[in-house]
Amino acid sequence: MSLQPLQGLLVVSLEHAVAAPYCSSRLAHAGARVIKVERPEGDFARDYDSEVYGESSYFVWINQGKESVALDLRQDADHAQMLALLAQADVFVQNLAPGAAERLGLGSANLRERFPRLITCDITGYGETGPMHDLKAYDLLVQAESGLVSVNGAPGPWGRIGVSICDITAGMNAAQGILEALFLRERTGQGSALHVSLFDSAAELMAVPYLQARYGRAAPQRGGLKHPSIAAYGAFTCSDGHELVLAVQNDREWQTFCQHVLLQPELTSDPRFASSSARGLHRDQIEDLIQAVIGGMTGGQVADRLTEAQTPFGSINSVLDLIHHPQLRTRQVEVRGRKVEMPAPACQASWHDAAHGGRAPGVGEHGDLLGMR
Hints:
Mean pLDDT: 94
Helix content: 25-40%
Number of domains: 2
CATH superfamily of the largest domain: Crotonobetainyl-coa:carnitine coa-transferase, domain 1
Strand order of the largest sheet: 3-2-1-4-5-6
Structural class: alpha/beta
Low-confidence stretches: none
Distance between the termini: 34 Å
Order of helices and strands: EHEHEHEHHEHHEHHEEHHHHEHEE
CATH architecture of the largest domain: 3-Layer(aba) Sandwich
Largest sheet: 6 strands, parallel
Shape: elongated
Radius of gyration: 25 Å
Number of helices: 14
Number of strands: 11
Strand content: 5-15%
CATH topology of the largest domain: Rossmann fold
């Protein structure tokens, strides 16, 4: 069995919903022992749906291989059990409501004074200062507040990004910060305090629209599958109704595309299309030219021509298409005694073969193993 990078490390995560569980799931996948501390009634994400043999798809996704301990931290005995766990821990992650950890005596400053080697990671909605720091924040709210909604989708009614992008990005940032802090502790012997917010995570995703709006002409408008800066880039419909997306991003690709796909090499010397910035200014003409060609061919014919030209393209797939996609890597977990396949984590490494995929735990399932009542 391969040695895993975080093998032997103990992570205690006072977590619910998505952001902190996503973070701790990445640490578990790298070999850490993760103890998930839940309220007695359990993480409310357990009840988001019941789509996976009666279990929540959200919960199954990011809680495999963890151990669950149910504690009422307002009770002295349970609070003492929590401190006993933290005395052994390398990392403490929490995403309680604003101020809740401090009220429970589990604020990061207090814990790090008590346990100097402990790495603490607080995940909040809007950060720990500022006029909105004490507000609850869920993914949809942060998508709206950060401007993500304003650049997402096509003109018309507002639409959220279809996955919990702010939660996931915050969890990724938290996991990265914890790995950095672990490396620093190897050098200094001291833990660190990390602070990650959903809003900061979303705002960083908005860096390009922000810079364009603040220092350029204007913020990008919602353009569906079109790129705000690049053409030819977007969706086109073939004669048989098949829809393809193209992503021609540089002059070399444009030249090859004109020669071998459009069969109009003279377009490469047209000053309207001679550079990426010029093509962006003449997007409508380019899209009309492309649709005129692609609209007269079947999806298979277009795909053959694009492949030969090495033009970047893809199909607009449904979730069902993803399930059967030839490039999809999956891993198995156990749900109520049955094997469930789900998309595998994106990072591939030799030690992941030894990762304890396991299953998502029941509420408080591992209390007895830890000597708890």
